[in-house]
Specification:
- By secondary structure, the chain is an alpha/beta fold.
- It has one domain: Maf protein (Alpha-Beta Complex), CATH 3.90.950.
- The chain is 29% helix and 25% strand.
- Strands 2-1-3-4-5-6-7 form a 7-stranded mixed β-sheet.
- Strand 4 and strand 5 form a beta hairpin.
- Helix 1 crosses helix 5 and helix 4 crosses helix 5.
- The two termini are 12 Å apart.
Length: 197
Amino acid sequence: MELLLASSNPGKLREYRELAGDSDFDLAELLNFREITEFEESAPTFAENAAGKAQYYSRFADESVLADDSGLVVPALGGAPGVHSARYAGANASDRERIDKLLREMKGKKGDERRAVFICVTAVAKQGRVIAVTSGSVQGLLTEEARGTNGFGYDPIFLFTDLGRTYAELTNLEKNHFSHRGKAFRSMLGVLAASAR
C-alpha cells in the first residue's frame, strides 16, 4: 500500500521511510505538495491539526495520505512551544533560531523544570475521509546547549534520559526505535494492516 506524506520536510520523509522498513507500506512525497495552498494548522491540539491536514491534502490524491503534527511540550513554559513548535520563533525561522529562543526561555530553570515531552499524532485520510489517528510521546529533559548533529528540529536539545543522549546524538536506528514519531507511526501501521485484512 502506498502512503503519500503531506510534508515538505525531507528529514521527516526519510524518517517515515525508515520506519516503514520492510512493511507492506511504501512512503512517497505527495506530488505537487508545495503548489497546493498550505493547510493552516490553527487547531489547539496536535490531533486536530494532524487529522485536518490529512483530510485536506487527501483531496488532492487518489492514494491514502499520511499527515502528522508533532511538537515539544514544556510544562514549565505552560506547554509551549506545543502546537506552535514549528513556528515558535516566527514563520520562517530556522531550527537554530527556534532552539535559541527556547533555550533563552529556559534560562535559569533547573532539574524538573527542564522536563519536556515530545508528542506526535499521525493521521491517515483517503479522498477527504479520515481513516485513522494514532499518537506517541516520549519524556525527556532539555539540555542547556545543543548537542549532536543528527536529526532536525529540537533534537539537539532533547535529552532522551533512558540513553543519556540527545535525539541528535542517537543513530537513526535508535531514534526511530524510541521516538514519539516512531511510536505513533508503528501504531498507525498496525491499525492500517488490521483494517486491510
